[in-house]
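Blackboard transcription, Thursday session:
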Amino acid sequence: MHVGWRAPPYGGARFCKEEQTMGHSVRTMIEMSAACLMFVAAVTVGLMLFQSGSAALKWTYESNQMADPNIHSTLSPLAGDGSVSGAVVLQSVAQIRDIGVELVVNGTVYPPDLEKEDVRLSGIQVNGRYKPFYQRGQNGELTRVVFTSI
Amino acid sequence: MKMINWAIVGVLILFPFYMVNQTETQMQRKTMITELRYDAALDAAVDDAARALIMNVDPGREAQYDSLKRVRVNKEEAIDTFYRTLYMNFGIADDPVSQGVLNRYIPAVVIIGYDGFYVYAEEEFTNAEGETEMRSVWGPKKPYAYADARGNSLSFTLDDYVIAYEAGSQRWVEGFRSEIAEDTIVPLLRDPDKFEQVRRSTIVNAIQNELAYRINRHNEYAARVGISYTFSLPVISGEDWSNTIDDVGVMAFLQGIPVGQRFYNNYALGGSRVLKQPFIVGAVKNGMKVYYHSTCSFPYPVEETFTSEKEAAKKGYVPLSCHNIAR
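(Written on the board underneath:)
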């Protein structure tokens, strides 16, 4: 009697093979997923490491930049136009022996061997401003300083 | 895809980042090491210059008894020593071309004297051949001058010594503030606190303004030789300024040398004063060995002297305070 269900001659074996194939695929998929996950994690951590290294370098560079005294701003403006006060001119005349060169203030010549007690200083405005001009010799040595009021 | 392939892909992704980081780290490291070397070179040069500053060529103008700070500065010797030490530390002692290049990065050297300061900076002048020459030369001595609203003028020094000009009587008064205060009508000399405050600010402002001008001018000269760096007077801390105006000394600037991704910019200060260290006296007081500082004026017979209290204690001497008046 060949009535009813009959198992195919290789059906069981095929079923087993499919079952085995599925198991391998799943296992491979799981392995691949794990590997992929690990890879992504490794790359992420690696990139983060480089980013933190880069940030540290940037921070070092910026802190060095901040340590550069030129970068700081200051509220007090520096004059620095080369002009001098009348007080400087007057005291320069007083110390003319130390300076050792002739001084000319608005056309008045003060020789370098002058004693300060002998000097007539009424022409020098101590609260005024003067522009100095330095005359130099052939070796760059100072020979005369000319002050002109501005 | 095999594990090895993943690894290769990973390495390929991360390698450029690694290389960039490595390069930057190396550059930063080299920059910092170079800056440290430059700092050391500049400090050594300024210290040597400050030491040479008090080498006296004229014994008649040695430090006076009235003030230890009153020293005739030997600025020529100081500047020679400064450059000699700097060139040696930069390894260019025998290379005039490199020395010339390095000079372009030194906008100014200041010599702070007892009653005025000198600036050594680049200027143009006509040389013996009739050509325009540009090199560092000395400026005139600049006094630490101040004028009050009444037209009186004062020239300060690194201590209380002052040269005053009275506008009303047109006479000069000179001496320590405490000694001449009663002889003059200049109000500032009668107020010691205000005098000190004005003295310090006058000295600092005088040096600062002159330096700002000299360094600004250096920009013009430096641009001609291809240096694009903008030289400017660095912000100098109050403590440094305070040290500057306490003793004769040297202040030098080194700016604009390209180092890595930035420019080197620093200044150095060197003070120069010979201080006599008080020694320790070992004496016998009522048969007991005692030691005290040489500044204490005890009449006990001196047995020996020591350089430190530790040495005296080792020899069995016991300390005796200067304030111990039970003799």
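Lecturer's comment: The longest strand of chain B covers residues 116-126.
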